């Protein structure tokens, strides 16, 4: 297991997919059967195709997305990335119509590697703060 190589892969994932919009790079990072742990319900396809779609949809909602890596830590087969992102909401996201608002939000991802590819990811993004900045309902059925 190459911890430094895994850290480099995570850095490149953030840079290529999130900053540059090269969503096909997901195929170089994620195993076909990787498992995604997410706090919110998702209907993403399995494997790298699912990760590609998640990124493409999010970048369509925030096309000027700028991604900053705050820190990357690794131990054994795990790599953790903490990041801050900003962008303007000009497309639909999560059932929310475009607001034109500029947002700043952060998150943490924990990646587990096997044979040089991500086989598992835990995703923690500040969706509450993001929704608040967009002026969107916080809870299902909420009006404000």
Descriptive labels:
144 residues, alpha+beta, Nuclear Transport Factor 2, Chain: A, five-stranded mixed β-sheet, 4 helices, globular
Describe the overall structure.
By secondary structure, the chain is α+β, with helices and mostly antiparallel strands. The protein has a single domain, classed as Roll (Nuclear Transport Factor 2, Chain: A). Helices cover 31% and strands 36% of the residues. It is built from 4 helices and 5 strands, in the order ααβαββββα. A 5-stranded mixed β-sheet has the order 1-5-4-3-2. Strand 2 and strand 3 form a beta hairpin. The model has no long low-confidence stretch (mean pLDDT 90).
Summarize the structure.
With 144 residues, the chain is of the alpha+beta class.
Indicate the proportion of strand residues: 35-45%
Biggest sheet strand order reads 1-5-4-3-2
**Major sheet description:** 5 strands, mixed
The name CATH uses for the topology is Nuclear Transport Factor 2, Chain: A
Residue share in helix = 25-40%
| Computed Rg | 15 Å
pLDDT < 50 runs, ≥5 residues: none
Overall average pLDDT: 90
- One letter per element, helices H and strands E, the order comes to HHEHEEEEH
Number of helices: 4
Number of domains: 1
